[in-house]
Amino acid sequence: MVSRDRSASLRRDAARVHLRRLTGDGAGEIEHWFDHPFARAYLGDRSWIHREVVLLAQRPGTVHRGARVLRSYGWIVLDHAEVPVAYIGGDVYDRWVRYHGESADGPILSGAEHRAAMALTYLVDPARWRRGYGRAALGAVLDHPEVADVEIFFLGIDVANHASRALAEAAGFTLDEPAPDFEDMLYYRRDRQSAPLAAHRRAPTAS
């Protein structure tokens, strides 16, 4: 068991992170993280991160589930010693809208808000779980100047992924709707005007 003092030290280290743009070389540095069963279950195998490098340039301008992609980002999260500790990325959309699947007439949508919204996906190095890096990665993105125009941030989390759900709540995200969607996903949302991330409680998670 990690001592209380050691745990506090690890979390102080986790708070000192910064972001580096994802590149092909960077994807190669972290691809082994995707060998972990948790990563494979919720994201995919090593090919996922390499495919993401390509899609970052292709997604802007496309329409996905009723919203237009304005920009796409992928970052490797580095600790104070320049060691990769997490990946985080996502798309900035022209609106927030709830997607309920497809019909013969097109996507089934509700609750559109015409404000810039960003969907986030992240993975912490499995060797560094329970050290606060997931929350630090989220905080680094919310504070990043390139997304200063984003008013709504959200996380789509599988209903069975209890660790990520706990992290989302600890980071100030709130459950948008209590019932999972048609893909068994829950959506957690955090508005720009919410209280600073540091003000929210910390909760131990696997991320």
TrEMBL record:
The highest taxon in the source lineage is Bacteria
Q: Which InterPro entries match?
A: Acyl_CoA_acyltransferase, GNAT_dom
In terms of SUPFAM superfamilies, this protein maps to: Acyl-CoA N-acyltransferases (Nat)
GO MF term list: acyltransferase activity, transferring groups other than amino-acyl groups
- According to the entry, every stretch annotated as the N-acetyltransferase domain falls at 17-193
Q: Return any one Pfam family short name.
A: Acetyltransf_3
Q: What is this protein called?
A: GNAT family N-acetyltransferase
Species the sequence originates in: Actinospica acidithermotolerans
